[in-house]
Amino acid sequence: xxxxxxxxxxxxxxxxxxxxxxxxxxxxxxxxxxxxxxxxxxxxxxxxxxxxxxxxxxxxxxxxxxxxxxxxxxxxxxxxxxxxxxxxxxxxxxxxxxxxxxxxxxxxxxxxxxxxxxxxxxxxxxxxxxxxxxxxxxxxxxxxxxxxxxxxxxxxxxxxxxxxxxxxxxxxxxxxxxxxxxxxxxxxxxxxxxxxxxxxxxxxxxxxxxxxxxxxxxxxxxxxxxxxxxxxxxxxxxxxxxxxxxxxxxxx
Length: 252
Description:
This protein is an alpha/beta fold. The chain contains 7 helices and 11 strands. One of its GO terms (cellular component) is cytosol. This is 4-hydroxy-tetrahydrodipicolinate reductase.
C-alpha cells in the first residue's frame, strides 16, 4: 500500500472544517494527524508530522497560518477567502524562500463551481453585457464571495484580451449602491439568505439572447472532492497555484 499523506486541518469546528475532517478521515490514502481550532498552537502541525495543511479558518487568521506552514516547508491547501493581489504577492515572496513547498489558494473547491468559472471566462468575450450574482447563507463573513471575485477577475481579463467594450449601463444615480460592487468593470451582487449554502450565476447578454452559467452547492460535502484533490496534488505543484483548475486537466 502506498504511504498515506499526513494531513492537518485548521478550522476543525467550522462547517467546512468539520466536513474536511470527516472526508480526510474516510480517505484511504490519507491520515488525519492534527485538527486545530481557534487558539490552538500551530506548533502542533509540526510535531504531528503533517505534510499538508488544509486551512479552512477565517480571513483574519489564514495569512498567518499559511506563512507558518510555508516557513516549515509544509504544503498548504487553502479555502479561506481574504487573499487579494497584495497578499498573494506576499505569499509568493515567502514561497521564494521555500521553493519545494506548494500552496493552493482555492476560491471554491466544488468541481462544478470551478467549471462554471471557466465557462464564464470562455463566454465573456462573446457577450456585450455581463454581471454576477452570488448567493450564500447569512453566516458568511465576506462579500462578495471569493468565487465571485475570482470569476469577475477572469471575466474582466477575458474581455480585455478580446477588446470587448465595458458593459453598457446608463445609470446616472445610484445613491444606495443598488448596482452592486464594481470589480474590474464587472458588477457583482451579493445575496445573504437563510436556507442557502453557496450559489452563483453569471448572466451574459446580447441583443435578443441571454446565457446563464449557474452553479449550486446544496451541501458542503460538494466541496470535499476538491479538498481531497488539492491534498493529493499540492506536493506535485511547488509554488503558488491560484484556483483548483490549476490541478485539473480541463483540456482548454
